[in-house]
Amino acid sequence: MITLYGRAASRVALYLLVAYLLLIGGQYYGLVVFQINVLSTILLIVIAICWIGWRLKCKRGFAQTPLDLPIFLGLGAAAVGVIFSLDPSRSAGALFLGMVWAGVYWITADGLSEGLSRRALGRAIYLSGAVIAVVAFVQVILFWRDWLTLGLLPQASFRVAAPNPTAAFLNFIWTLWLAELIESKRWWQRIILIAMLILSGIVMLYTSSRGGWLGMASGAFVFVLIYRHSLFNLARAIYSRPILRIVIALSAVVAVVVVSAIAMRQWSHATHAPTIASSREEFWPPAWEAFLRSPISGTGLFTYSSTYLASLSVPPRGIFNQAHGLVFNLLSETGLIGLGAAIFALIVFVKNVGQVANSPDTESHWRAAALASLGGTFAHSFVETTYVNPPVMALIAIACAMVMPISSRGWRNGIILIGFCVCALWGVWAYQPLHEGVELGNEGRWKEAAALLDEAIKRDPFSTWTKLQSGYASHRSGSYTRAIDLYRQALKREPSYSMNWANLAAAQWANGDREGAKLTLARARSLAPDSIHFQTVESKWTGAPPPLIKQDEVEERIALVITGKLLVDELTKDRERLAASFESREIVFSQVIQLAEIEIAQKNLPRANYLLKYATAMRGDSPITLEFAYGDLDAARGDLRSAALHYARAWELYSLQDDTSYGWLIFVREGFRENIAPELAVMPLPRYMIIRLQTLSMWYRTLGEEELANRFERMSK
Predict the structure, then answer these.
(1) What is the pLDDT of residues 392-420, one digit of tens each?
(2) What fold does the segment set 431-541 form as a domain?
(3) Which residues pair with 408 in a beta bridge?
(4) Contact 578, 595 (CB under 8 A)
């Protein structure tokens, strides 16, 4: 009985540990929380210390595997990259993470060598992954619900949140579900597992991740290759039964038609170009240029974001930390040294994995499932870099341990684990003031933030990013001389970061160095010649004409309709044209919004409400116009408070679209939400936006909210 309870307790502990590793410690959907990072670090340190202590007590070394040497070489390549990195601290952090996942691999391999069941490990993974799959499936259900409430089939494609990481998760868990299905003897278990496999297939389609689709196809190929004889026998048995042949044939036809229809729609998703390499032309050339500049060691791990910024002349739509491709990422960040280490690891892996196929032991299904998932992840990694996501890295480490044989025993892996513990403790100590300083800065307590960030620099003097953060905090606290010095120190390593050249210029201007500020701003302008922010500031400093912002004519006309300054008759032709497009279902999201606004202006409120629900179901990429339209509808209904809330939300979204996106770059650690000097924050507004702000001010004044009314009135001037 005690043994039974002990086994149950250990099984539950394993499940909880894996769930934490994948869902919380893995920071699902990219959540960056310092406290969780600390907790995860402490948890892993405790596990490592306990494991080392247990091994010492048993006087038995760690299990050693054929992958140990490639892992050591990879860590060595990362260490060399730290020396030549654009930001040594950032690359050292990546090296530390590499040690963490190496530790996960060795502990898993050691546990398996001591009797840890691959079945239990696989179940822990797919049960945790099922949470992610179900969450994503609910999103799909809500998408269909929105359309069906309109009495229509979906008229637009849809992607679940975090599509590429979700696809990477699915490429691991579906093979494990399949392994469980092969082993299962109970009918109810088989039904549940088949349902989960269907669910994962549906979610995979709605990720619109062509790399994920490629990975699933590759994983299926590996699985079929391993079980080709068993599958052939199964197919022969099915063929001998006519009824089964008919049922399976009809099911296959229906599945192919449905899947093809969804796949074609998702393939043409608005975020995609026609090919599988869509948008990779944005990511791969900068990586190649970085490799040519530093072909031997690369620019350092976790520095691709700097490379990406250097390649752009205008502020990007987002900041990307990875090159969206294994080969290009390795070439960019680790050079030929890292690529060579990766190729060597692949050769060793392939050489030693042969015994997985049709292994005679009872866990052969789980080995095969792990190998298939690794094959899928490898294929996916050529067009995406989801493998750097912490949960995916954990899955890769565990899956490799599940398929690798044990070659011998020794203490070298334990030494690395001790090194990991030391580095982890240092990391928690070094990054604590950075975290606290950022929190204070985001609360507006800039002097206290600057003091803590100076302490962070003392603890980690090689961190370029910390110097940028500290410079910004000093700037906001009025310590311009200190800010100038820190900006210059950081820019020696990160000369491509145009926003901080502009921040330096603003600090020089505030410090009285007007000519120096103009020259520095010119440097920022050369890196981002189309930046409206920089042009605006330059016009203020030099007296040049302010930049012209391209006006959205349709938006402006609609705004004038809402305020009664344009006759509705002028939009009659637009209404007829858009209505015809709507009836033929040849209409895009923005056009639906325009048609809804015209119906509001003509007091056709039920029709306008239907159109806005239609636009909501389309889930377009312009929520600003949708918020404005809902505000206009509420105003037409007489609900000014709700209308004002929609307008305020639209303004918030609009204010997040300009050059300040540079300031949201977190790299690996936390940073200020805005990283742009106040002197640079002034930029002209499009006329239609001015009209919207004036309308919002009028509504708040009508509601008696004078403070808010004055605030938005000032913004409109």
Answers:
(1) 888 898 899 988 887 777 777 777 778 77
(2) 1.25.40
(3) 64
(4) yes
